[in-house]
Batch of 2 targets.
Target 1
Amino acid sequence: MEAAHATLEGILESTNYPVFSVDRNYCYTSFNRSHAATMKAIYGADIELGKSILAYPTTPQDRSLAKANLDRTLRGERLVLEEYVGDEALLRSCFEISHNPIKRSDGEVGGVAVFARDITEKKRAEEALRESEERFRQAMEATNDGLWDWNVKSGDVYYSPAYSRILVMKPPSLPTARKAGQTSCTQMTEKRRSK
């Protein structure tokens, strides 16, 4: 039994991701060092086994969100969510959080195992990309230059609105990606002149 406990503890500590479990009363039954460090960073909390996880969030919305997610899982539902958590005064981060019911030998849910992954940097990169794409879209709409971009790997072709106006073609009649690769600009210009 002691060897099995040591193995489980080793598994918990082998990951840099926060991992913890709670019982039906929301009290910690286990957690790894990464989870303890995360709770300290985002809430300034020194967590303890046997204490309720709901005692630690310093923001009411985080506390109520944690309770709602744990309650759903205690009813047997598996959840994978992306949530921003933490005290704005300390650190607010985005996590992908997986909630999993822990079933007892009788099949009833006796607790919840939670695995989290900090995806804050990924979310920032996605937002930066969205903003960049929006700036590009606005620039394309504002310019009178006819531009097109062909992604050879995917076969997708982007035509700026001005490109259609210059060729006196409506976007649906513009060549598809395959045709764009087979049709020369001269052929497209001849087609425009013949109209």
Note: Residues 177-190 have pLDDT under 50 and may be disordered.
Target 2
Amino acid sequence: MVTTEEKTNKELSGKALKRKICENLEPEEIKDLRQQLLEKQQELEELDDWEMDECDVNDYLDDCYPEVDLAGVKYSFSRVLKDVDDCRYDEFKTDIENQQREEKEEELQDEIEDIETELEELIGEEDEDEKEE
């Protein structure tokens, strides 16, 4: 009688079976790194849809530009800009989001490269250990 597992294994190609076996035998450290890699790659993909919260945009603008003095009353730059020229405010928002997105993308790319390098080193060490045995 053929078990379900044996039937499944027969259906898998040699390469897929080898990958399945290797994944089950991988040390936790490698599994964790693979998971981190997948999470970072997903974060990178989701970055295209990312938008800044209006409060964050206002904070950014207010940190970059001084308060506006109107007849002795001080107003935040972001408030004046939004109230006076909403289109220009939206342009600033888009520019800030693009800058932040690019910085985050570079950061994620660096993290992905670091994880890939670490994985390659660990897998290479495992291959050397297997050759020695």
Note: The mean pLDDT is 82.
